[in-house]
Amino acid sequence: MQFIVTGYDGSDAGALERRTAVRDAHLVGATAMKEAGQLLFGTAILDDDDKMIGSIMVVEYPDRAAVDAWLKVEPYVKGDVWRKIEIAPCRVAPMFQAK
User: Fold this and answer.
1) Which distant-in-sequence residues (6+ apart) come within 8 Å of 13 by Cβ?
2) In the prediction, which pLDDT does 98 show?
3) Can you give the residue range of the structural domain that contains 71?
4) Angstrom distance (rounded) from CA 64 to CA 87
5) For residue 99, is it within any domain?
């Protein structure tokens, strides 16, 4: 199954510092997920000043329980970056999927 995971950073003064502190670990994990076929797409959400305020990841896992298991070890969750997370099942059109 495919899921859209939208993580919104906190809006407090330390939010950007928390994000940058674990960003490298997040990118290492995202690279591994991409290589394993679990990450289909990812992008940072920016505000009007081009500041990162969240993330969108389109992931593929067998079920919602597997998504929840990944989130338990995701650096942006463990590092208290994402303060609000929305998860929705989706279906990526074949023309956008890697061959």
Assistant:
1) none
2) 67
3) 2-93
4) 9
5) no
Which pLDDT does position 95 carry in this prediction?
87
* Number of residues in the chain: 99
Total tally of structural domains belonging to the chain? 1
pLDDT digits (tens, 9 = 90+) for 16-68: 999 999 999 999 999 999 999 999 999 999 999 999 999 999 999 999 999 99
Q: What is the CA radius of gyration of the chain?
A: 13
Does residue 67 sit within a domain? yes
Residue 69 inside a domain? The answer is: yes
CA distance 50 to 34: 25
State the pTM of this model.
Answer: 0.93
Answer for the pair 8, 92: CB distance below 8 angstroms, yes or no.
no
Q: 5 pairs with which residues across the strands?
A: 57, 87
Question: CATH no. for residue 28?
Answer: 3.30.70.1060
